[in-house]
Amino acid sequence: MNQATLHQLKVFEAAARHGSFTRAAEEMFLTQPTISMQIKQLTKSVGIPLFEQVGKRLYLTEAGKELFATCQELFNTLAQFEMKVADLKGLKQGQLRLAVITTAKYFIPRLLGAFCELYPGIEIALQVTNHEGILERMTNNQDDLYIMSQIPENLDINYQEFLENPLVVLAPVNHPLALEKNIPISRLANQPFIMREPGSGTRRAVQKLFEEKNVEVKVKLELGSNEAIKQAIAGGLGISVLSRHTLMPYAEDLTVLDVEHFPIKRDWYMVYPNGKQLSIVARAYFDYLLEAAKQFASEKGF
Question: How many CB atoms within 10 Å of residue 118?
């Protein structure tokens, strides 16, 4: 591999991560023929195939998997070196790769904005996905920090709680139960229910409580986003359980029902794999978020 260039390795890493030359080309602002040519030259330098195509899908060979892991280690090391140099110069520069659970999009962008004002030299790459998507990204070591509300039990991780994330029963403001107090949870069984999609951490938490209390709700709709669920609730299609954080843009249209055993107590956590060395930028955001969340919680009454 004496003739392999850093550019070729970056092209390969993008193609391997996406499993697609087309998506790698989009990410790197290159043409697909350019991507193919760079991969071809790198393959020639290595001496054995790095990809194999089965049908329309692209797969890494054993050599490709080894090179992909090596590229990730190399680029992480280079990024940390660049940020270390910036830190020695008294600067905070570099990139923060952050993956957050869907509901966190209601408050994380606000906290990111304030962070960027403090450190204008830092670029933010923010990915928003559900619980299963976060686990997949964490397994592949694609990000610096992960923000989630359910700690994975089967992964070796470090985590830090930083903000409460209560799950509440939401209904339209004119719902018949809106003015009642301490509603028995069993009465939810008579209500049309809107549920998050399978793989959602919120759904798992809700189902666990219903199973513990022997409540079987009538699921009328399954929707894949909090926004769609809130629109459905406001439209009178049913009630649902969501994070209280999601209520903020819809406070006039929705109300929180006073149901026994609610809110379900949950927390937001910053998570990263055990053994991962946080970059200077990631550590700066980690420390910043611990303090900023206290102010946010005070303002919102959490």
Answer: 12
> What contacts 24+ positions apart, CB below 8 Å, involve 299-302?
300/248, 302/163, 302/164, 302/166, 302/244
What is the residue whose two structure tokens read 């937001």? 268
Separation of alpha carbons 301 and 225, rounded Å: 24
Report the C-alpha dihedral over residues 200, 206, 207, 212, rounded to 10 degrees. 150
Q: Which residues contact 66 (CB under 8 A, 6 or more apart)?
A: none
* Of 295, 223, 192, 213, residue with least CA distance to 261: 213
pLDDT bucket at 171, cuts 50 / 70 / 90: very high
pLDDT in tens, 14-51: 999 889 999 899 888 899 999 999 999 999 999 999 99
Query: What CA–CA distance (Å, rounded) separates 186 from 169?
Result: 13
Residue pair 165/245 in contact by the 8 Å Cβ criterion: yes
Instruction: Determine the angle formed by the axes of helices 62-88 and 6-18, rounding to 10 degrees.
Output: 120
Structure tokens that stand for 297 in this block: 């919680």
- pLDDT digits 0-9 by tens, 60-90: 999 999 999 999 888 878 877 876 776 666 6
SS3 115: helix
Q: Tell me: pLDDT of 92 over 70.
A: no
H-state helical runs in the chain: 6-18, 21-28, 32-46, 62-88, 108-118, 131-139, 201-212, 226-234, 280-300
Are the C-beta atoms of 34 and 25 separated by less than 8 Å? Answer: yes
Cα–Cα distance measured from residue 194 to residue 203, given in angstroms and rounded to the nearest whole number: 10
CB atoms within 10 A of CB 245: 24
